[in-house]
Amino acid sequence: MRSVHRINHRRASILRRTLAASVVASIVVGGCAAQQAAHAQRSASAASVKAASPPTTIVPTASASFGPLKQIDAGVLRVGYAEAGPSDGPAVILLHGWPYDIYSFVDVTPVLASAGYHVIVPYTRGYGTTRFLSDATPRNGQQAAVASDTLALMDALKIQKAIVAGFDWGARTADILAALWPERCRALVSVSGYLISPRPTTQPLPPKAAQAFWYEFYFSTDIGKLGYEKYLHDFNKLIWQTASPNWQFDDATFERSAASFENPDYAAIAVHNYRWRLGLADGEPQYDAIEKRLNALPIISVPTIALEGDSNAAFHPDSAAYRAKFSGKYEYRLIGGGVGHNLPQEAPQAFAQAVLDVAHF
Known about the structure:
Shape: globular
CATH superfamily: Alpha/Beta hydrolase fold, catalytic domain
CATH topology: Rossmann fold
CATH architecture: 3-Layer(aba) Sandwich
Helix content: 25-40%
Radius of gyration: 19 Å
Number of helices: 14
Distance between the termini: 45 Å
């Protein structure tokens, strides 16, 4: 198996240059209560805001489930995915983030399926039952590769056009699909709005903001990579707790998702993604043209609903900062009630409602 994790030491100084506090900031874990309070106050006054009422509470348990999972060869992967709803209904693709999995959408999926939508929920490369078709394929976590996986999945499933919706890595992928392939994207639901990232980033952050990126620096070292592999279970649980401080998930809920981290490529994909973002690991040449387009921070023209939890303790861009990146019909919703980073699992009704609403924009 080829590795794309070797650090380019000529670029090691980039460790001191992380993501700019701008419209292109990707979701990363950390932050503080004061930052989040300021974010909520600014967001409430931004254009096109709909202040959503507290969501219907659905207590997370491991009792909810999908039907039998399916597999399909798509691009460089054999993708594992859940499917629900009528096969001839309008397609919705739900995309999870790190370190989560398809069960972030376990309560969203039946709402959409019962409304007549054909719902596809794939495991991202490196998660669950998704596998690489070849040992020779680099275990690459760069944004263009992950987005291309979803496009390949749509082709394999013969889905010409879909509503794409996601959070964290999944929101970034959904944004990329909407920006570069709008003819394949009927509409977009994106938690934290515009998450397309330039690479490598060149502007340093002040200490408080840089603190939010602690694990990105950790992954940039050899000892950090070894530490993540050794303490992966506890590490990911800490991310869940700190990114969503008010989310009272039970042990069974976490363990159900933790099973997807046992994929043999999981740690390699996660670490490569963050090293690549800092310019410390190479991507693959076949994605260079896509990355060049993404570095221009393309406008998203498809109908969009951007969501944010009022207690998202992961670093995320202010909604006013990215408003200009959306040129089509657009709405921003701040979801109240202590909702954190894993919005579709913490507030499934609000997330599902956004998908249903954007379909009629």
